[in-house]
Design a protein that fits this description.
This protein is α/β, with parallel strands linked by helices and 362 residues long. The protein has helices spanning 8-14, 16-24, 43-48, 58-74, 110-121, 136-140, 159-179, 184-205, 208-218, 232-247, 283-294, 326-344, and strands spanning 28-29, 34-35, 51-56, 78-83, 98-104, 125-130, 143-146, 223-228, 250-255, 273-277, 300-305, 315-319. The chain has a 5-stranded parallel sheet with strand order 4-3-5-6-7, sandwiched between helices. The chain has a 5-stranded parallel sheet with strand order 9-8-10-11-12, sandwiched between helices. Helix 4 runs parallel beside helix 7 (159-179). It is globular and about 55 Å long. The protein starts with 7 loop residues before the first helix and ends in an 18-residue tail after the last helix. It binds fructose -6-phosphate (F6R). Keywords: Aminotransferase, Cytoplasm, Glutamine amidotransferase, Repeat, Transferase. GO terms for molecular function: carbohydrate derivative binding; glutamine-fructose-6-phosphate transaminase (isomerizing) activity. Residues 41-181, 214-352 form the SIS domain.
Length: 362
C-alpha cells in the first residue's frame, strides 16, 4: 500500500509529478492559451471584483500566500490572506465585490469552515479549493475547485501543497484573462511553467539520496531556519512547518529580509539555514542574507536556480528555469530534507505526536 516506501509521506512526496499532471489535466488549452476550471463565477462578477480574500490553516495557508502573489502579479486585483482561525470579514468591504477562497486539503477543517460560513452569512461568494470531493467545504461553497492530487494519508501535507498552488495559479490566469488583465507573455510563460513543473519536480526527486546524506549530516542542528523572499517566502515557511511537525526540532521560516530584524540573534554554528534563492524571489538580496548567516558560522543549504549560483554554496541544489513556479520545485528538497532528518531520529513520520490529519475542532 505504501508502494515500497517506508512511509506514506515519502510515497506522497514522490507522487508529486503525477499529482501535478492531474491538477492541470483537462484544464489548460495550450492552443488557445486559456484555462477552464468549470466555475460558475460570471464575467461581470469577476470584472467588478475588488478583493479576493484567501483563508486557510497550516500548509494550506502557505499555499494561499503563494496564491496571493500569483493573483496580484497576473490579475490586477487585490488579494489578501488570513489564517482562517483569525478571519473577520473586515470593514469597508462591499460583499458583492468580494470573493472568499477557502483552501483546505481535507475540506473538513473547522477553522476554515467557520471563516467560509462567516463570509457566506455576510453575503460574500465563496470558492472552496480542496482535494476531497463531497467534503463539507466542497458542499457549502458556491463553487469548488478540486486539486485532484489523489488521497494523502501522511499527516504532514506534501503533494497537496504543490497541487494547491498550481490550482491557484490556474485560477489566477483565469481571473486575469476574464478581467482582461492578463499580459499575454506572462500568461504564456506561466502556462508553460505549469507544463514543465512535473519534470522539474522529478529532477529534484531523483536527488533523493543526496538530500538524505545532507539531512543526516545536519540533523544534529539545535534549530533550523528557512529563508526566502517573494514567491520563495511561503516555501520557506512551509519548509519549517514540515520539519517541526515530523522531526520535533525547532524550525522557523521567515522572509529573508526579516533575519536582521531579530532572528539573526539566534543564528550560530549550530543552526543550519536553508535558503531558497530562486528566480523571481530576488535571489541577489537573499544572497546577502546568506552571507550574514555564514559570517556567524551557520551552515547554509542553498536551493538556487540552476541558471544562478547553486555552485557557490557549500551545499547547493539547483532547480531548472520555471519562472514563478521555481520555489515549488525547491520545496521538494525541503520536504525530503525534513523527511530524512525525522527518519534519522526514528520519528513516527506518518503520525506525528499531537497532530491529526484533519482538525475538526476550532
Ligand atoms: C501540515 C498540515 C496542517 C494542515 C492544516 C490544514 O503538514 O497538514 O497544517 O495543512 O491542518 O488542513 P486542511 O488543508 O485539510 O484544511
Amino acid at each position: 500500500e505504501k508502494g515500497g516506501y517506508e512511509h506514506y509521506m515519502l510515497k506522497e512526496i514522490h507522487e508529486q509529478p503525477q499529482a501535478l499532471r492531474q491538477a492541470v489535466a483537462g484544464r489548460i488549452d495550450p492552443i488557445e492559451e486559456r484555462v477552464d476550471l468549470d466555475l460558475s463565477l460570471s464575467r461581470s462578477f469577476l470584472d467588478d471584483l475588488d478583493e479576493i480574500q484567501l483563508v486557510a490553516c497550516g500548509t494550506s495557508y502557505h499555499a494561499c500566500l503563494y496564491g496571493k502573489q500569483l493573483l496580484e502579479t497576473l490579475a490586477d486585483v487585490r488579494a489578501t490572506v488570513e489564517y482562517a482561525s483569525e478571519y473577520t470579514v473586515g470593514s469597508g468591504r462591499d460583499p458583492s465585490r468580494t470573493l472568499v477562497v477557502g483552501v483546505s486539503q481535507s475540506g473538513e477543517t473547522a477553522d476554515t469552515l467557520r471563516a467560509l460560513r462567516m463570509a457566506k452569512r455576510t453575503g460574500i461568494r465563496t470558492l472552496g479549493v480542496t482535494n476531497t470531493v463531497g467534503s463539507t467545504v466542497a458542499r457549502e461553497c458556491d463553487d469548488a475547485l478540486y486539486i485532484q492530487a489523489g488521497p494523502e494519508i501522511g499527516v504532514a501535507a506534501t503533494k497537496t501543497f504543490a497541487s494547491q498552488v498550481v490550482s491557484l495559479a490556474m485560477f489566477a490566469i483565469d481571473v486575469a484573462d476574464v478581467r482582461g488583465d492578463l499580459d499575454p507573455v506572462a500568461g504564456r510563460e506561466l502556462l508553460s511553467n505549469l507544463q514543465d513543473l512535473p519534470g522539474a519536480v522529478q529532477q529534484a526527486l531523483d536527488r533523493d539520496e543526496e538530500v538524505r546524506e545532507v539531512a543526516e549530516a545536519y540533523a544534529g542542528g539545535e534549530a533550523f531556519f528557512f529563508i526566502g523572499r517573494r514567491f520563495a517566502n511561503p516555501v520557506a515557511l512551509e519548509g519549517a512547518l514540515k520539519l517541526k511537525e515530523i522531526s520535533y526540532d525547532h524550525a522557523e521560516g521567515f522572509p529573508a529580509g526579516e533575519l536582521k530584524h531579530g532572528p539573526l540573534a539566534l543564528v550560530t554554528e549550530a543552526t543550519p539555514v536553508l535558503a531558497v534563492l530562486t528566480d523571481g524571489a530576488r535571489p541577489e538580496e537573499t544572497r546577502n542574507n546568506v552571507k550574514e548567516v555564514q559570517s556567524r558560522g551557520a551552515p547554509v543549504i542553498a536551493i538556487a536556480s540552476e541558471s544562478g549560483h547553486e555552485g557557490d554554496y557549500e551545499v547547493g541544489f539547483g532547480v531548472p528555469d520555471l519562472g514563478l513556479l521555481e520555489p515549488l520545485a525547491a520545496n521538494v528538497y525541503l520536504q525530503l530534507f525534513a523527511y530524512y532528518v525525522a527518519d534519522s531520529k526514528a520519528r513516527p513520520i506518518d503520525r506525528p505526536r499531537n497532530l491529526a490529519k484533519s482538525v475538526t475542532v476550532e
